[in-house]
Amino acid sequence: MELEVAATNFRRLVLELEERFPGLGKQVEEGMAVAIDGEIFQDAYSARFGPDSEVVLIPKIAGG
Amino acid sequence: MNYIPSDLKVVGTRPVRPDGVEKVTGRAQFGADMRMSGMLWGKVLRSPHAHARIISIDASKAEKLPGVRAVVTSKDFPHIASEEAFVGEGPMNFRDLSRNCLAWDKALYEGHAVAAVAASTQAIADAALALIDVKYEVLPHVIDVEDAMKDDAPILHEDLFTAGVTPTPSRPSNIAKVVTFKKGDAEAAFKSADVIVEGRYTTKPVHQAYIEPHACLCSYNADGQVTIYSSSQGHFMVRAYCAKLLGIEIANIRAVAMEIGGGFGGKTLVYLEPVAIALSKKSGRPVKMQMTREDVFRASGPTSGATIEVKLGAKMDGSIVAAREILKYQAGGFPGSPIGPGCMCGFAMYDLPNVDVVGYDVVSNRPKVAAYRAPGAPISSFAVESAMDDLARKLNMDPIALREKNGARNGTKTHYGPTHQNIGFLATLEAAKNHPHWKAPLKPGQGRGIACGFWFNIGGESTAGCHIAEDGSVVATSGSPDIGGSRASIGMMAAEVLGVPAEHVRTVIPDTSSIGFTHVTGGSRVTFATGMAVTQAAERTVEDLKRRAAQIWEIPVEAVEWKDGKAFPAGSNAGAFEPLDLAALAMKAGRTGGPIGFEVSLNAQGAGPGFGVHIADVEVDKETGAVKVLRYTAVQDVGKAIHPSYVEGQIQGGAAQGIGWALNEEYIYDKNGKMDNAGFLDYRVPVASDVPMIEAVMVEVPNPRHPFGARGVGEVPIVPPMAAIANAIRSATGLRMPDLPMSPPKLRAALDAAARTSSA
User: Fold this and answer.
1) Structure confidence by residue, pLDDT tens digits, A17-61
2) Which of B326, B528, B696, B724 could form a disulfide with B651 if both were Cys (CB 3.0 to 4.6 A apart)?
3) Residue in chain B lying closest to A45 (CA)
4) Are B448 and B487 members of one domain?
């Protein structure tokens, strides 16, 4: 699924998603990581992206 | 600051491991070594049934036994609502964690904890367990993942409805969730393929097989203060989980990280600690608990067993045009298998235009699954890399050349979304191709296989400190329990920044009340994230030391430089002062501003992924079916090896575990769902004579987001071995073994079947 949002960081992205799809923003914030131009950020409100950035949500990664 | 292009004096060397003497002399303190005055022994009563409703628990006779001071059941725990949070290692549903520690209304696997006692001796505690009368209604059980998915399978949870499907089902199911990842249109692209390869593969559940069973000593004081001594992969995780499960404020718990005898992901959650705290609260005394080896097998989380189907479509030139994978993973008694990473990792090494992956998280009546080194990835890669080998044969193409042709590189968009950056997969393939092992001749009856693997690695929250003692010696503090050598690498990074020898820095792991929050030791994150924190702490210390030198010399701080552990005037204009080393500055610490040291807490981002390529040579004894691993080479992109011996150790350890997973390890259940081989005699892990010297080849493509270029290394090496061994067996015998483990009875059966077919 592809969406357009007005956001330049992960925090604003989450708030925009929550406004449009109530519950989705919380789910994204708590359960997903964001990959910005290939680099994975987890739990980072300040992760920034620009108008040409590739922003992909993926399940949070753990490990063993 | 970035040290990647620097001339390093400490990082990259091999100082003697700082914990070695304690460990080889038996002085190291593990979870089971702690004692406290007035301590009681705690023991757990476990379900003998794989699936049963708990009708009643009568502990009255046990409570009256002389020497028994407390008995607890789930009624002594607050019954919390289903709530999922990402705390510790991976998403955790706290209601399920509570129910796993002590069963509520159902026993969901043989070995599931039902009640616990605390008594003055172990013998009295055992006698008390026998006096607890539990009435069960035994229910039909299900173990195998595909059996658990059937419409008529016994249902474990009446309130579990499959997530990830539309519309939401109305009937409960053992399928907890379905996940999908799609790129392009695989179905259409298969039609354009010149060559198709398909396979169905199965893996059995295996245990992390750490040699140290779970153990703890917990004390609940009358003022509500709790102390926990336990071995774990995260004492902050232990603190948080116990607080949540028992309704205690986090600050009222102090968790101490004892030395750990292996974790591999299996110690990223709690089993005994909440129970011990509840017993301590009820009895008014400290309580010690430790699992037997049988308990570890019957009641602690192994990884999933699974069924995987793979389909690959390619052109005659080797370009893969379509790929599909269907994965079904056992989660054990509660949802939460590593199905997500399994779906993402199998094809992560390749640049594929059309991919379709579907994964199922399925509950069944066995212990709740826990993380095991790159959770989910080894299972997925066993299937994908076996199929890649078959594809190479069908195309009559060298298996490394096939992988190079389709290999991920910087700019490759993965099937799960992100675009790879700063990765070293092609470099590892090149190193494998050029390694003498790849070209070494084989004797008749021997075979060679190759396979690849990937793991994301993570960053996360870490705290570390750098403190200069009054005599100038250095204490580095790390919030990360050391399970793989991190205290050495933490100390070395601090030493490098300070400009002192590694031996001049001692790294310690303080308890949760004495250092800032730190996420678990897992996900191959510690050298990356906690290393980043200690580097910054050491850098701030150096800046402060320069300020103090400037104050002593009465010159501007810009006129001071730091080199080789000393402050120097920067140039002759700054003044003719003798350099000041750490001891000299420490002596004047009070007069120049107070104690010297800094603690840094951060949330590290930018952990670079890792790739590995393994080459295995095997020989199959056609009479017994036994597989001998003759030679094994593991090539891995490590970013920067802070302490190369430890990195080699991680690679060798992961490879050895993968070899065991490939050849022998499995849970064997009887018809009642009870484990038949709950001990190391019958659960066959590799021993030293089973495995050749594993050569670890380190390729260093630095991760630009770490000050020294480090990547996580601990998890990648367990991903390739199963397929490397399977492909080597294929090469030696002509037989594709799609079911793990490839143990002697299975090889014998396959060899017999092949002989019958060829003589027919």
Assistant:
1) 999 999 999 888 988 899 998 888 988 899 999 888 888 999 888
2) B696
3) B603
4) no
Which two three-digit tokens encode residue B685? Answer: 């892990």
pLDDT at B88 over 60: no
User: Residue B8: inside a domain, yes or no?
Assistant: no
Compute the Cα dihedral for B127, B131, B133, B138 and give only its sign. positive
Residue B288: what pLDDT?
98
Residues of A in contact with B416 (CB under 8 A): 58
Q: How many CB pairs under 8 A join A and B?
A: 99
Indicate the pTM of the whole model: 0.96
Is B419 in contact with A42 (Cβ distance < 8 A)? no
CATH number, domain of B491, equals 3.30.365.10
Domain shared by B93 and B220, yes or no = yes
| C-beta separation of B337 from B362 below 8 A | yes
How many domains are there within chain A?
1
User: Which residue matches tokens 């950035």?
Assistant: A53
d(CA B215, CA B34): 9
pLDDT band, very low/low/confident/very high, at B90 (cuts 50, 70, 90):
low
Structural domain including B513 reads 20-27+459-604
Which ipTM was obtained for this model? 0.92
| Residues of chain A contacting residue B91, judged by C-beta atoms under 8 Å apart | 31, 60, 62
Q: With H, G, I as helix, E, B as strand and everything else as coil, classify residue B456.
A: coil
Q: What is the mean pLDDT of residues B279-300?
A: 97
Buried b (16+ CB within 10 A) or exposed e, A21-49: eeeebeebbeebbbbbebbbbbbbeebeb
Mark yes or no for CB contact A58/B344 under 8 Å. Answer: yes
Going by pLDDT thresholds of 50, 70 and 90, the confidence category of residue B155 is very high
Asked if residue B624 and residue B600 are part of one domain, the reply reads: no
Q: Tell me the chain A residues in contact with residue B369 when contact means C-beta distances shorter than 8 Å.
A: none
Averaged over B701-707, what is the pLDDT? 91
Distance CA B363, CA B2 (A): 46
Q: For residue A28, give how far its alpha carbon lies from the nearest alpha carbon of chain B (Å).
A: 12
> How near does any CA of chain B get to the CA of A45, in Å?
11
In this prediction, residue B606 has a pLDDT band, given cuts at 50, 70 and 90, of confident
Q: Is A56–B374 a contact, with Cβ atoms under 8 angstroms apart? A: no
